[in-house]
Design brief:
This protein is of the alpha/beta class. Helices cover about 15% and strands about 30% of the residues.
Length: about 160
């Protein structure tokens, strides 16, 4: 699913919502198109963890976000640290703070927290989590695939994407 964003409002040109298994191929494509990785971050929301990969280009003011949802029960996404070396410590930081596992990461040791800190100690409580739709501007959807949504449609109390 791809949505066009208001750069003035969000600082992005496009949001690309992907399944976890599609992240490495998408990262390789961004590298081929001469995008660099700015950061990888995660947000703990009602639906699970939203992992966002921000990409930009030096030659033009283009910014793209690849977004992936993983469940609280199985927070696993493939590592892209073998594609973008700069993703290494971003993935480690997400693992530290959110207990997300980046499969295939060569060195997923704690980056900032003490190695003795229990995993997930910094996670939000269920009642303090916000719905995904309250936190990001989805933009205007320009491409979707059948059956793929970045959020749980069963949550009827959520507002429609903007």
């Amino acid at each position: 699913m791809v949505s066009k964003c208001s750069f003035e409002k969000t600082g992005l040109n496009f949001n690309v919502f992907l399944s976890p298994e599609d992240i490495p191929a998408a990262a390789k494509e961004m590298l081929k198109k001469e995008y660099y990785i700015e950061d990888v971050d995660a947000v703990d929301v009602v639906e699970g963890f939203l992992i966002t990969y921000h990409y930009a280009r030096f030659e033009s003011a283009e910014r793209v976000a690849h977004r992936v949802m993983v469940t609280h029960a199985e927070p696993v996404v493939p590592s892209i640290s073998d594609i973008y070396q700069g993703a290494d410590w971003h993935e480690r930081e997400c693992a530290d703070f959110h207990a997300i596992k980046f499969s295939g990461h060569p060195n997923l040791l704690p980056l900032l927290l003490d190695p003795e800190t229990p995993q997930g100690v910094l996670l939000k409580t269920d009642k303090s989590r916000k719905p995904l739709r309250d936190l990001i501007d989805f933009g205007e959807f320009v491409f979707t695939t059948d059956g793929f949504m970045p959020f749980d449609e069963a949550q009827a109390d959520l507002k429609e994407p903007k």
